[in-house]
TrEMBL record:
Its main location: membrane. This is SLC13 family permease. The lineage of its organism: Bacteria, Pseudomonadati, Planctomycetota, Planctomycetia, Pirellulales. It is a multi-pass membrane protein. It comes from Blastopirellula sediminis. The chain crosses the membrane at residues 6-25, 32-54, 60-80, 101-125, 145-165, 433-455, 485-506, 526-559, 571-589, 609-629.
Length: 635
């Protein structure tokens, strides 16, 4: 076993090793790397086994897992599609998209748990990027940063401020008891009593918007940087664009506009049908009158048949619009409850298929295969005929609506050369959209009230998220299989292991050793001490959990302020802000980890974009804090 005096140094070396490995290579999965670091610290005796696995049962991990299920429910019912259309419907570039979402995200994250916002908005932004052949790496990290910035505008914006507030309640109670003891002493020390009575209001719990007096200017300054310059520092990740792209097969598809469709009375431009990547609107069939070529100002009416050529993903996107249904095969099932049993499948017709020579309308797919034709592709040719009138040939690729067992039954059939499922084509339960949105509203209200009146018992964010996630499954807003698939194990394991790594730094004494040494070097210079406290919290929050940073540094800051006859309030607020504002590493905050995989980021990407952002926010905070909360008790 390693000697105990070496434990702090081992914890520091292991943490540095994880960061260096993440920077040098991506061959080791991030979750495996953190697990290996955790196992090493347990084997060397730095961390007890119980502390190492505590992260896997932490409230944060449980809440994030449940919120991913809630987000899946919002996605499967079409709520996220509606949100994405409202925010990004007519936006064409990443910079315009960032400008459009910045305000709503910052405002929402002041009242909604950051992880919930990122879990909901991440699939919306990824879908929007895929439709336009853009890289999500330009938007996902700014999404995380914006939620972090908005979190410091109110007491309930982030869990870190709640931890600080709990610590303040304990400190305030302890100081009151200390004053009472001094007053009851045989020879009361009037000077000591007066000092503590003066400082007592300065360690009282925070007001709801108190931190926002500096947090809001920090959020504004940080958001402006992200919009004007920050996005340019992020990678374009062309390989991600390829991952999001589809096979370049162009299908011919005919969609019918039902009376309840939201596209009715909109122009083609307003409906966003000219912005979808890989899609071209050939003509509009209006009760036999053909409109071609289609102009951006042409209006869409109920009953119109819209004829497109497009890749699979755009056809899937069209099918997700309520009231827009494929018109090639009248056996297509478009009622939400019926469509849940149906899937999109691609098949390639063989020479021995009995369908060869028949038109789509006469092929009678329902009787032969219990399937409906949605679209047709013929290699090397752009089909312009009506789909129902196309005469099928060997090698034609058909996009079908099928039962779940179709692939298993037809995989070895001589009728088809190839049978494969279409990913991301799950039907939307639009009939459950209002219910899913209501459940999400209940979750937001639940968490807000719990934050205001105490977070114990039923007020625990994890309990709230788990309850709503269970209701999403019970009310069929999301299928149980989709709910299980929504929980990203890599994200969950990485966060849980990162919590264990943070515990090692804390429990080994490494964090306290570094903090006290740096503070002692500063001496009795109030503003310099404020800067050091802020920078300490900022650096530590990139390595260990935000709550641990707040719990570790707050008592030290209060003690140092009291010893130097300084006002503890600015130091308290500096810790609350710095511990919440994490931009430099993927493990500094949970949302940074959540976007790392989908955005294809490397640790250096966080540094390139995060360092200037952190400096801007830190400068704003350190300039304003002394004006809002004076450094001396006499003021």
């Amino acid at each position: 076993m390693i000697p105990e005096f070496l434990h702090p140094w081992l914890a520091i070396a292991t943490t540095i090793g994880v960061f260096v490995t993440l920077q040098v290579t991506r061959r080791i999965p991030i979750d495996l790397l953190f697990l290996l670091a955790l196992v090493f610290l347990v084997l060397t005796g730095v961390l007890a086994p119980a502390a190492a696995i505590a992260g896997f049962a932490s409230r944060a991990v449980l809440a994030i897992s449940a919120l991913l299920v809630v987000a899946a429910g919002l996605r499967s019912t079409g709520v996220l599609d509606w949100v994405g259309n409202m925010l990004l419907g007519d936006v064409k570039t990443e910079q315009s998209a960032l400008r459009r979402i910045a305000g709503p995200i910052v405002a929402s994250s002041a009242f909604i748990l950051n992880t919930a916002l990122v879990a909901m908005m991440m699939p919306v932004l990824i879908d929007w990027c895929r439709q336009r052949n853009l890289s999500p790496s330009k938007l996902l990290l700014p999404l995380s940063y914006l939620t972090i910035l908005g979190g410091v505008c109110t007491l309930i914006g982030t869990s870190t401020t709640l931890v600080v507030n709990d610590q303040l309640r304990l400190s305030h109670t302890a100081m009151q008891a200390e004053v009472a003891q001094l007053e009851e002493a045989a020879s009361p020390d009037a000077t000591a009593i007066a000092k503590r009575q003066t400082a007592l209001p300065k360690v009282a719990p925070m007001g709801f918007f108190e931190i926002g007096m500096v947090g809001l200017p920090c959020a504004i300054a940080g958001s402006l940087f992200l919009i004007l310059l920050g996005q340019k520092l992020l990678p374009g990740s062309p390989d991600l664009i390829e991952q999001l792209g589809d096979q370049r097969r162009e299908y011919l598809v005919e969609m019918q506009v039902l009376p309840e469709c939201r596209l009715v009375s909109k122009t083609v431009e307003e409906a966003g049908l000219r912005n979808l990547h890989g899609l071209y609107l050939i003509e509009i069939d209006r009760h036999g009158d053909i409109i071609t070529p289609v102009a951006p100002g042409d209006q869409i009416r109920a009953g119109d048949r819209l004829v497109f050529t497009g890749v699979v993903s755009t056809i899937v996107d069209l099918e997700k619009i309520p009231g827009l249904v494929p018109a090639a095969d009248q056996t297509y099932e478009f009622h939400p409850s019926s469509r849940q049993q149906r899937h999109l499948t691609e098949v390639v017709l063989s020479r021995t298929s009995p369908l060869i020579g028949s038109t789509v309308r006469k092929a009678n797919f329902r009787a032969l295969y219990n399937a409906a034709v949605i679209a047709v592709h013929r290699n090397g040719m752009r089909l312009t005929n009506k789909i129902g009138n196309i005469e099928l040939e060997p090698g034609d690729t058909l996009l079908l609506q099928t039962r779940g067992d179709f692939i298993a039954q037809q995989r070895n059939s001589r009728d088809f050369y190839l049978v494969s499922s279409v990913e991301g084509a799950e039907p939307r339960r639009h009939d459950r959209a209002l219910l899913a949105a209501s459940l999400m509203s209940v979750l937001i209200l639940w968490m807000t009230l719990a934050s205001l009146f105490g977070g114990g018992g039923l007020g625990d964010p994890a309990i709230a998220a788990l309850s709503i996630a269970a209701l999403m499954v019970l009310t069929q807003c999301v299928k149980s299989s989709d709910a299980r698939a929504a929980v990203d194990l890599q994200v969950v394991v990485t966060i849980a292991a990162a919590l264990g790594l943070g515990s090692a730094l804390w429990q080994s004494g490494a964090a306290g050793m570094i903090a006290e040494s740096l503070v002692n070097l500063v001496g009795p210079r109030p503003y310099l001490l404020l800067i050091v406290i802020y920078l300490l919290a900022m650096v530590f929050t990139e390595m260990i959990t935000n709550a641990a940073v707040a719990a570790l540094l707050l008592p030290i800051a209060i003690a140092v302020a009291m010893e130097g006859d300084l006002n503890p309030r600015p130091f308290i607020m500096a810790i609350a802000l710095a511990a919440s504002l994490s931009f430099l590493t993927p493990i500094g905050y949970q949302t940074n980890l959540m976007v790392m995989g989908p955005g294809g980021y490397k640790p250096r990407d966080y540094l390139v974009a995060g360092v200037p952002l952190a400096l801007i926010v830190a400068t704003t905070a350190l300039v304003l804090i002394p004006f809002v909360w004076p450094l001396t008790l006499t003021n």
